[in-house]
Amino acid sequence: MWIYEKKLQYPVRVGKCDVRMARYLMEQYGGADGELAAALRYMNQRYAIPDKVIGVLTDISTEEFAHLEMIATMIYKLTKDASVQELEAAGLGPNYAQRDHALFYQNSAGVPWTAAYIQAKGDPLADLYEDIAAEEKARATYQWLIDMTDDVDLQDSLKFLREREIVHALRFKESVQILIEERDKKKVF
Description:
The chain has 189 residues and is mainly alpha-helical. The protein has seven helices and no strands. It has a single domain (19-186), classed as Ferritin (Up-down Bundle).
């Protein structure tokens, strides 16, 4: 189903070690509105969606996994030269004590990722409206992350991800329109 290219979807550069920003980025790694939750939500919803729009969910789910890889790369680059004291000062001491510099699916507050973040109603329109909301929440979070750093290299990657969330929301909105037109024509679902 997939062909993996050993390169990121968009280059990730950081200008400096910034453990504080790494912690904030964990929101998009393992948070409720983060990339893992989105990728799994859309992949899961594919099984209850009409064929006319199933490809949209597959495409966007796959891209969300690429975004997850970008976020992981950002976190790694922002922390790779950090001392234990810097990790502790940024609130990442517990993570270091358990995993050294390894990543773990958790949000910026340290709450572990949970499958409860995945929404699937089984109703195509309800699910697509949920997906639009998820993309808009991710867009907002990316904007706030951009606002929290003065690292122009990091901002560049975050702006790319923010723009992709906008594109995803638009594709989901198009899918809603397709399904509404289909429903109105056939009087189904």
